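Hi V.,

You were right to ask for the full record rather than a summary. Here it is.
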Amino acid sequence: MTGSRRILYPLGAAVILAYFFFFTWKSLFLYFDADDMYNLYFAWSKPLGEVLRSNLFFWNGFVRPMGAVFYRAIFAVAGFHPLPFHVALLGLGVCNIALCFWFVRLVSHSDRTAALATLLFAFHTRLMEVWFRTGVVYDALCFTFLYAGACLYIGARQEGRQLGAGRIAAILACYLCALDAKEMAVFLPVLLLSYEFILNTANRKSLVPSRAAGLIAVLALMIVPYAIGKLHGPGAMANNPDYRPEFSYARYANTWSVYLEHLFVRDTPVPEWTGMIIVGALAAGALALRSRLLIFAWSVIVFGLLPVSFAPARGAFVMFISWPGWVIYAAALLVALQDPIMRSHPQYRTALACAVFVLAGWRMGKFNLHDQRADPRHWLYDTPALVRAMSRQMMQQHPSLPLGTRILMTADPFSTGEYTPNFVMNLLYRDPSLKLDRVGMMEKAPANWDGYQYVFTYEGNSYKQLKP
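Predicted structure:
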């Protein structure tokens, strides 16, 4: 390693981590939200053996069992305290930053491109749920295992050697964990094929027949039972209208318009025809420049989002798996713009790369700060405030409750139809037999309170005990 690299590598890593924590440290002070309560209760209430088996038998329809392991393991150690969950989530964020650098370095063979792409990857204001909400830890876990598997594969293929049995086992294990984390993991075999046919031209002839081709075939075949488990059966995700796919051009164009709104930080969706033109223009630009790296980045952008492109549009966090494609595309273009200057003035190569790195980080940081100041994101903080108030006030009044306690709430601040208060009480006292009834969810209020040991109401932002 040259002298400049010995300085720039740790300095660049420190800048990227500082940039990341500058935007994410406030997440450590967030409380559990409604999704956390459902996810944690679901993971905690299931038999441990069922949770572990579901991670092995990925086709059984259990919803994202790797996330259940995350919740259950931390809850077993730390209890009903949100800080360890958020620390773990930020730890995953740091791990994913390192994976992004590794991945981009492998596919671009460029330190400049890898460093710049990783800086852009570190934080995007509309993807902040990935780092702020443990309720979307599934996306962070899926990214970790998917790109770890991709890096293990690409690293071996670049050396032009056959995949060893140990590496194949590691890639399969990563893919299994990614599938257990979130459905976006089905992108991995497509990602590896894109790498082989777009970037790995030197070793393409060695793909078939080879262990690499056999591995990709196995990864693709694993999708079949996985998809059957997700799309069929009483607990299938397709039964939920929020996840039910609609395979039509209209749905495809609509989801892209929403996700491009998030990407470009707009207040309204990008017109659908404009969205399709943008997708096409990215492909056309890559072809016009004859850049295999840009074509590969485009494939990550498009195919990385494909698993949710026909489902109802959701938050920007679902773009996280395809986010490396965007940052590779942007970083590769910025590096390409530097090349003419460097050819005529090679002595300025390092200085120019550092200047572009700093300017890109400054501009992206300013972009992120402006959006967060313009939109305080009350939805990110409102529900955690309700959960925090309930858990703290209940523990202040009753640090413990007898097993099987029956409680009635005559009023509470939660909307009807949601079970967040029920999950809070069961988890707070670690009692699955505790029973909470809420008048707001009953057809008729009980005539008396004889069947309840405790009765509470909610007045003036406080829970007040009415019985005993």
